[in-house]
Amino acid sequence: MFALVDCNNFYVSCERVFRASLANVPVVVLSNNDGCLISRSAEAKALGFQMGDPYFQVKPDLEYNKVRVFSSNYALYGDMSRRVMHYLASVAPTIEIYSIDECFLDLHGMNRYLHPNLAAFGAEVREQIRKRTKIPTCVGIAPTKTLAKLANRIAKKYPAMKGVCYLDTEEKRRKALELTAVGDVWGIGYQYALKLQAQGIRTAAQLTQQSESWARKFLGGVVGVRLLRELQGKVCHQLQPSEDGTLSRQSITYSRTFGTPLTAFSDVLGAVSAFTARAAEKLRRQGSAANTMSVFLSKDRFSLEPGPHSSSTVITLPVASSDTSDLIRLARTALKRLWQPGCVYKKAGVIFDGLETDGQQQLDLFAKVNVGEARDKLMKDLDKLNERFGSGAVTFASAFVKKGERPVWDSKADFKSSAYTTDWDELWCIT
DNA sequence: TCTGGGGTCCTAGGACCC
DNA sequence: TCTGGGGTCCTAGGACCC
Fold it and tell me: How many CA atoms are closer than 13 Å to the CA of A106, on its beta-carbon side?
């Protein structure tokens, strides 16, 4: 059996933990750059606000309905997430942190005398998380990950379930599949839902009636076959945990939309350098070095101008690296290649790919060994200083921003709550 | 004026090699 | 009209997820 624990409206729930005044009123949280709605309270959903609604379009509506609006505050959400996951790690033999607000538990081998009734176990988990963190959750328990996802949706949708849905019998599995629209199945997105509806397949139950060769043909090859089998209760996806429960990434990206569009090379270079530094930090944190680096620049993606709105270039490194100064130098080379004078740029990003374990690189025949070691030490010290004194305390010249000033590329975040739990300067004040 | 960001997996097709 | 057969590596693109 697998369980999926999913936090309800996670970002909104995090904001509510620290503000009693947000209870029972409509609340939404915006994406980066205050772009779209990405988390909505039940009250905001009831008013008709949709996931992904552009903020500028629904702003009058939000104001009219007195909806409380927040910019996203990842320092807060990340910290609350760690608390939830830390608890979950203590109750199941294996967990896989699937996203910031979802976690799979592998219940195989769980002590059957301690938890003879998994539905009661689910209820206990919910209650404990609520007590410890004030975050509301729902729990789905079923024989496969895909069915656990489905069970979780049902636990959310039907209040009578009291937040827990346990598909322990064939009868319940069948019922759950009949209650689920095909587009709500994990792995069926917009395109597949259209295709399926055209063939008269409306519910998950109807989907499971199809043959594997049909799934292979219409649902993306082996991916579709696995999906079908999982719905039928045959396990295809095991948990994939890493040591700390988080997945070790195969690629690492840092990209941002600029708060205001940029036209000067020096401004964009500053942004790309800063993004490179942040991505390199992520690289070192997971103990990786990158073999390739891509830099991309984007113009207005909603403009009707013909031609591509984005351009990118890939640089293959001579030796895999996680050294910020190396990488910034390459980023500058890449940027020069891409740069078109007179263009108005709205977004830039850096992607590291071809990751390998740092320190295992083939020796560069001409490198002076001492230089490499000194650099490693420098990067370690850099990370320590930034961890202790705050991100950006020590930076490279090309990414430098004066203390107290906001960089020209900085995203918009007009409605941000405090980092109550992670920043000494923003602790919760009781006045 | 304003429309996020960070990932995954899979397939197909081309280049190249023996 | 005929014009090998594998294998690998790389890239681009499509679909999905939260």
Answer: 14
SS3 A297: strand
How far is residue A278's CA from residue A265's CA, in Å, rounded to a whole number?
20
Residue A420 to residue A15: CA distance in whole angstroms: 10
User: How far is the CA of A355 from the CAs of A127, A192, A362, in angstroms?
Assistant: 40, 32, 14
**Residue–nucleotide distance: A221 CA to B11 C1' (Å):** 9
Residue-wise pLDDT tens digits, A214-269 = 998 889 888 899 999 999 999 999 887 766 656 678 889 999 999 889 999 999 99
How would you write A177-220 as a 3-class SS string? HHHCEHHHCCCCCHHHHHHHHHCCCCEHHHHHCCCHHHHHHHCC
Which nt has its C1' nearest the CA of A100?
C18
C strand bases under 7 Å from protein CB: 11-12, 14-18
Question: Token pair 């420098």 is at which residue?
Answer: A378
A391 touches strand C (CB under 7 A): no
In whole angstroms, B3 C1' to A301 CA is 9
Q: Helix-strand-coil percent breakdown of chain A, rounded to 5? A: 45, 20, 35
- Assess whether A344 (CB) lies less than 7 A from strand B: no
Beta-carbon contacts of A387 under 8 Å, excluding residues fewer than 6 positions away, are none
What 3-state DSSP class applies to A39? strand
What percentage of chain A exceeds 90 in pLDDT? 58
Q: How far is the CA of A47 from the C1' of C3 (A)?
A: 67
Q: CB of A21 under 7 A from strand C?
A: no
A77 strand C contact, CB < 7 Å:
no
Does any strand C atom come closer than 7 Å to the Cβ of A99?
Answer: yes
Q: Which residues contact A335 (CB under 8 A, 6 or more apart)?
A: A265, A268, A269, A272, A295, A297
Nucleotide nearest to A53 (CA to C1'): B3
Give the pLDDT band (50/70/90) at residue A308.
Answer: confident
Query: CB of A231 within 8 A of CB of A185?
Result: yes
